[in-house]
Write a structure and sequence with these properties.
about 325 residues, mainly alpha, 20 helices, about 80% helix, elongated
Length: about 325
């Protein structure tokens, strides 16, 4: 697992093959086969091998949790619930060390209220474990108890900083509409350990607060970490426009439009750029595509009418406005 996390896939394969040859346990062999299948994203084969391993040796909580997560990924929810019930029975019989596994399964199954009771127990018994504070706060947030979650988590993250703690604080502040607090949290979190989520929260908050230089820097980092994310590039382009870097923004927006010809933010911004550049015909093309996607949108229709009028196509512009009269 450590080799996989470090990207040493060939080393991991060698270790697994060596262990598979040397092990005399069928439970271990089936578990290794399952892990190999999982690393190849063959989840159903992994599930089959994990089940075989558990038939030989049922008391393998870590492997059973891997089985549970794969079943959830495969949308085999009844089977996943059965694995969660196994953890519940074990905890009820006094194996409290498995309480964290149980809480995770309940959270993933959407049984948030029940999961919260276990997370709270774990946190009260281990107040220095940030992970338990984070999970307790996340469950509270899911249940609409954002202020309570914030009160619980803030002092813990101050005392024992952790990236996921900062991410969760940013999410709570977002739920409470406290945009300025998001910037403060992400600044501290990024100084501790940069993550994609923290760059995202910072970029989004900076855009809302009309801080284009910060939005631009954060969006670039976000896009570098998640190149396929259109929202990161959208904020990047908007920040460029706000900073007056129109040509750079145009190139970026056109690139987004090539990847997705129906991407509305690009169409809207490119129309504005075209009008400012006195390219009214091009503006009409962009607004026509926008209204084609949103025929019910009065604002889109008005924008299309303006584009047509700028292109001196007054009858067509009137035709767009007439139904709105």
């Amino acid at each position: 697992e450590t080799a996989l996390e470090m990207g040493l896939r060939s080393e991991m394969t060698f270790l697994l093959e060596d262990l598979l040859r040397r092990s005399g346990s069928e439970a271990v062999k089936e578990g290794i086969k399952g892990w190999k299948a999982q690393t190849q994203n063959d989840l159903q084969t992994a599930v089959d091998h994990y089940r075989n391993s558990l038939r030989h040796q049922p008391d393998q909580p870590e492997l059973r949790f891997l089985l549970f997560k794969n079943l959830m990924e495969l949308k085999q929810f009844e089977e996943a619930r059965a694995e969660s019930d196994w953890f519940k029975k074990k905890v009820a019989s006094g194996e409290n060390i498995l309480k964290s596994y149980l809480a995770q399964t309940l959270s993933l199954l959407g049984k948030t209220e029940e999961a919260l009771s276990y997370w709270q127990e774990l946190f009260l018994g281990n107040p220095d474990r940030t992970v338990y504070a984070v999970e307790t706060a996340r469950a509270m947030l899911t249940l609409g108890r954002a202020e309570e979650a914030l009160k619980l988590l803030e002092p813990v993250v101050v005392k024992t900083p952790e990236a996921r703690g900062f991410e969760t604080l940013a999410e709570i502040h977002a739920a409470l509409g406290q945009t300025e607090h998001i910037l403060k949290v992400t600044e501290k979190g990024l100084a501790f350990k940069p993550t994609t989520s923290l760059w995202q929260y910072q970029a989004e908050a900076a855009e809302v607060l009309k801080q284009p230089s910060l939005a631009l820097a954060a969006a670039k980092r976000w896009a570098a970490a998640d190149p396929g994310n259109a929202s990161a590039h959208q904020i990047w382009a908007k920040a460029l426009l706000d900073l007056g870097e129109v040509e750079e923004a145009r190139i970026l927006l056109e690139g987004l439009l090539k990847r997705n010809p129906r991407f509305l933010p690009s169409l809207v911004h490119l129309r504005e750029i075209a009008l400012d550049a006195k390219q009214s015909g091009l503006a009409v093309e962009y607004s026509r595509e926008t209204i084609g996607q949103r025929p019910w949108d009065t604002h889109a229709r008005l924008q299309h009418a303006v584009s047509l009028a700028e292109d001196e196509r007054f009858l067509a512009a009137y035709g767009q406005l007439r139904p709105l009269a």
